[in-house]
Write a structure and sequence with these properties.
88 residues; 2 helices; 3 strands; 31% helix
Length: 88
């Protein structure tokens, strides 16, 4: 199954640009993973998950000493940047 991430969002931006679609005027694009360098020319809005929170949840799970599956929900972080516009 393909994974939606920042690189996929960059591909979407390229296709929209070639098609003459205004971003963020007509469409907003967001990525996932916050994998682009901070000095990137693309000001991509992205959702990220910090490793620190994931590690903390894993350690807490180990400390509990419980076996078997358990759902752990980690709150993502949303970094709104330049290519996300207001919904119309």
């Amino acid at each position: 199954m393909p994974e939606a991430n920042d690189q996929c969002a960059i591909g979407v931006l390229a296709v929209l640009s070639r098609a003459g679609v205004a971003v963020p005027g007509r469409v907003s694009v967001a990525g996932y993973g916050d994998a682009l360098p901070r000095l990137s020319l693309v000001d991509l809005t992205t959702v990220s998950q910090t490793a620190r929170h994931a590690v903390r949840a894993a350690v807490e799970r180990l400390d509990e000493g419980r076996e078997g599956p358990r759902e752990i929900v980690l709150a993502p972080l949303l970094g709104i940047k330049g290519i996300t516009g207001q919904a119309v």
